[in-house]
Recover the amino acids of this structure.
């Protein structure tokens, strides 16, 4: 710890930490995910409940992490908590999954979302503009834009944590203000009583859209639970990346206080914004149009109702700012995990080196290269299922780690204790486990790949340890 403090500079305060949480969480999901949720459950009430439930689950996890962040206020976050509670193997599997899929896959997905909406302003950068073909592989302009943004943000963050901090705070404040503005304008100018009343008719009558039959089919019982689980993939993915602030705890002032507080404030703010945004959607857009918005762009449809034709342009700019800020936070935080792993001998040695600006530049660029490679797949939706299943598994393990550490280290200093312990942490474990099992059963073809990627880390770990 002493050695770390001599290099990593504590230049981030409570506002910076909170803005990192908010900025990393809000990407493109809130603008598009509600369409899939509406198709899965076909109910206004369940649309809002799923967003609210995802937010509550996230807040419970965040306040539970507060205890761990106060106990281990150093770089690495979740990786460190898993190592302390379990062993190096579990920590390595997290880091392996984090580099292979979780962080880099999310960075790639957010980069692809940025480029898709940039095409509204500059049609030449559309994914329809194919630049090169080789067999089944097609390189399009949108992929190059995605990669360019990742490279630019990596460069900015490689020049010091202060640069990334300023960019993150400014862009996140703009993002929050624009989203709040959209909600206010929607509820005051765009809301129509007939649409609102129609959307709240038979609100508990759940149904799911069957693409093969081309029709809505009523669902209940097991089918409803399956539909809710599938619908929550998008909302949970949209609420993820809140733990990024724990990765850079080594650069936060008074981390034992500010990390936990940043987690709570950030997740609470985002949950309120997400729920209100969906209230605005159902006040402005008929539920049928929410479900079948073109390319799932619900926010574009809502903006067109509110502002007319210029609404598409407004949303495109908002999402570009949102995804740019989101990726800045992801890129800044992710490299600190590889840095800490390398110091433990579980990642490339170079990743443990800091440059002249006191940041892990090699780790940043390694992350950049792999995330850029993932951009070449160009598939945003395909990443969601196997990212979410791995994320949930490690969240469950980490929060169960609180129970383990209470027994293993009963006398350890705990400046903050998990709120509602043991009931709230246990409730999270039960709910998240139920969702994970349901996803593995209903979406094994995608979620199974996520688990397989994680498990391939086991032989890799033992091979590297022998070396």
């Amino acid at each position: 710890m002493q050695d770390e403090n001599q290099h990593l500079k504590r230049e981030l305060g409570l506002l910076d930490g909170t803005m990192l949480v908010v900025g990393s969480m809000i990407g493109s999901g809130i603008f598009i995910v509600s369409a899939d949720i509406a198709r899965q459950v076909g109910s206004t009430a369940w649309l809002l409940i799923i967003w609210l439930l995802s937010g509550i689950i996230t807040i419970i996890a965040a306040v539970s992490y507060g205890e761990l962040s106060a106990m281990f206020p150093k770089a690495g976050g979740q990786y460190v908590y898993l190592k302390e509670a379990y062993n190096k193997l579990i920590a390595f599997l997290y880091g392996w999954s984090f580099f292979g899929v979780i962080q880099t896959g999310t960075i790639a997905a957010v980069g692809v979302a940025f480029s898709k909406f940039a095409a509204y302003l500059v049609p030449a950068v559309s994914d329809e503009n194919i630049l090169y073909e080789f067999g089944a592989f097609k390189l399009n302009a949108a992929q190059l834009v995605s990669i360019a943004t990742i490279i630019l943000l990596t460069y900015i963050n490689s020049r010091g944590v202060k640069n990334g901090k300023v960019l993150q705070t400014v862009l996140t404040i703009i993002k929050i203000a624009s989203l709040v503005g959209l909600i206010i304008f929607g509820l005051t100018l765009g809301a129509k009583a007939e649409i609102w009343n129609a959307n709240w008719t038979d609100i508990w009558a759940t149904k799911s859209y069957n693409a093969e039959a081309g029709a809505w089919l009523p669902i209940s019982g097991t089918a409803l639970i399956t539909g809710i689980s599938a619908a929550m993939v998008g909302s949970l993915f949209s609420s993820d990346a809140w733990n990024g602030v724990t990765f850079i705890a080594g650069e936060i002032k008074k981390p034992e206080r500010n990390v936990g507080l940043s987690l709570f404030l950030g997740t609470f703010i985002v949950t309120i914004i997400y729920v209100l945004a969906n209230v605005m959607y159902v006040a402005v857009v008929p539920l049928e149009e929410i479900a079948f918005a073109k390319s799932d762009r619900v926010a574009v449809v809502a903006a067109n109702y509110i502002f007319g034709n210029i609404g598409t342009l407004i949303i495109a700019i908002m999402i570009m700012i949102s995804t740019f800020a989101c990726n800045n936070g992801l890129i800044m935080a992710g490299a600190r995990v590889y840095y800490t792993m390398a110091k433990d001998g579980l990642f490339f040695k170079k990743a443990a080196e800091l440059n002249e600006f006191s940041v892990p530049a090699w780790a940043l660029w390694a992350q950049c290269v792999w995330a850029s490679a993932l951009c070449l797949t160009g598939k945003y939706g395909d990443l969601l299922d196997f990212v979410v299943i791995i994320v949930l598994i490690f969240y469950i393990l980490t929060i169960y780690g609180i129970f383990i550490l209470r027994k293993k280290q009963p006398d350890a200093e705990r400046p903050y204790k998990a709120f509602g312990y043991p009931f709230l942490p246990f409730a999270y474990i039960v709910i998240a486990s139920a969702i994970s099992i349901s996803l593995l059963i209903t979406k094994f073809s995608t979620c199974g790949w996520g688990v397989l990627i994680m498990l391939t880390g086991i032989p890799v770990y033992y091979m590297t340890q022998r070396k």
Observations:
- The two ends are 26 Å apart (CA to CA).
- The beta strands are 130-134, 137-140, 207-210, 215-218.
